[in-house]
Structure prediction request, 361 residues.
Amino acid sequence: MYSNGTAGSISIQYQNANPLLYSLPQDHMTIQPYWIMVLQLIGMQLFLRLWNLYRYHVFLTTTEIAFIRWVLSFHKETLRRTSLEVLRTAEKIERDHRGPLFSLIFRGLEQSEKSQELRDRLRGKVDFDVFDFVFQCLPLCGHGIWYCHIQSSCMSAEYATTWNCYNAFGYRIYNYIFVSYSGFFTVFIIKLIALLENRKTWIPATNWQWFAFHLGLFSSIITFVFIGALILPYLLTHVLPMVFAYIHFSIVYFALLSTIFISTGVLFQNFPESENVIVLLPKYFPGAYRPIAGFSYIIAFGLATYPILLSTLYNYSEYLYYSENYIYTMSNEFNTRDTSTYIGVFQNSVNQRLHTFLDFV
Prediction:
């Protein structure tokens, strides 16, 4: 133990809690203060956008690109149905009066073609590549393997039981892997859907593109299965019960998200027209669909932030399952995120510095 007491085991602060939270080495159990979690979220979002700006020339995350593609598909399908309805109407009236209707049909088909063109341009921006392997799969699998390794010695710790060790492992997984994996999971599903849509037409331009694609694809599949297997049991035994026990947190969260959702839709209604694919509100994109584009950004934001709440709810189980008071559970979890303790562990532990760096990725 270091002189400041931050490297080794510490005394149990809360009796009604999993004792392994306080008897195991701190650099294995200390979790981030909330303000660091916010910085990690901002850093991750900025990094993803800068990468896509460099690689694909769009200042958007992959999730936002996917939702914009969905809006364009919806737009195209609506135009197609409208054109068919107008065509059926044109067949029922006299030939001399069909001119304006045919003009409307041609205009709709032209807009539909432009929507498809932009959607196809965005398709190439949701491919598997080396980025998936280096910045998502390696950090997640590295984290997972490390925690599996240190878990092997859990039963030799003081206060160790099978149940306590099971809970302690989940505590590590949900505080240092779950949020990153949730983002990875969303992107993985998006890219997999895009791949299945175009599996017959996708042709790599170079050998490097073929290699990068398959490296990203197979490493993502391995990560999806391996880390998912670690996370899933706790989702059933801990997270879902806590979501219902503290349902008011989810209600408040989704109420705030809905308010932002509606406000963003109004903002995008009056968003300037542009031909720039980075803005993704082209001139032919009808005003009625612009709020939907704005909604897509907020849905992507929700997918990135709600897992943070779920990881906190998991922590509540480490007190509530050990007979702690409903209210005290929340304050105890908050107190474990003490900034000075975290900084002390960070300064003295290589493990903690590495975990923090990987979380920013």
